[in-house]
Amino acid sequence: MKLRKVTAASAVVLALALSATACGSNDKKDEGSSGGGGKIKVGIKFDQPGLGQKTPQGYTGFDIDVAKYVAKKLGYDEGQIEWKESKSGDRETMLQRGDVDFIAATYSINPEREKKVDFAGPYLLAHQDVLIRADDDSIKSPADLNSKKLCSVTGSTSAQNVRDKLAPKADLQNYPTYSACLGGLQNKQIDALTTDDSILAGYASQEQFKGKFKLGGFKMTNENYGIGVKKGSDLKDKINKALEEMVADGSWKKAVEANFGPANYKYEPAPKIGDIKS
Ligand code: GLU
User: What stretches of 74-222 adopt beta strand conformation (E)?
Assistant: First the structure.
């Protein structure tokens, strides 16, 4: 009898605990599997044509299409997405602070970042390259960069790789965004802009730069794009599942063709989830 009473009491405690947990997770968007009437905050780039770009007509690019697909699978329609600019140097902090639920912004998976955030993916493999003036014949290999003025972006793997291994002697200038480097490249304040070939191809194909710039074609690194989430978030597994579905149902292919076709960017095949190329 006594035992039964204790058991009943624990059942009440357990039920209360369970309902408290359920309430808690209803409040937190990033744990629900359905958006309901809520919003999901997604970090993207605003100035990278073909990948993530804010235009008068709305947000466009491959990262946007991936983010929309993922958000849909998480239960959020396009209208429930709140887009936020996540510049290269701000991404880990934005996730850690909870400013965004996930980031799809040419965000390479690497061990350093994995100490601070988690990644789903990869969903695209790109390679670091250089964008130079079309009439510049002095940069024929990555080693030639050592005597040049290079522009890249604070907090990017592109800048880090230049310093660590690609061209440690280069005069490297770090700007807040890649688009900020373009003017300097045009008016010869800098000799080359270095980052992922996917991004550079987008700039080179812009109407205002047609014929002015070219890519080196050096494939200096592997950049495995992942979707960043807060460390320990259960969104990672859900997003991995969504990315797998995106490839399986043909949406990934459609998105790469639509977004990289205009820049004539030769994208790599869809990577397998968890297959990070070093
Ligand atoms: N994918 C590289 C990175 O994550 C370069 C592009 C970027 O800065 O977004 O740092």
Answer: 81-85, 102-103, 117-126, 128-133, 149-153, 171-175, 192-196, 213-215
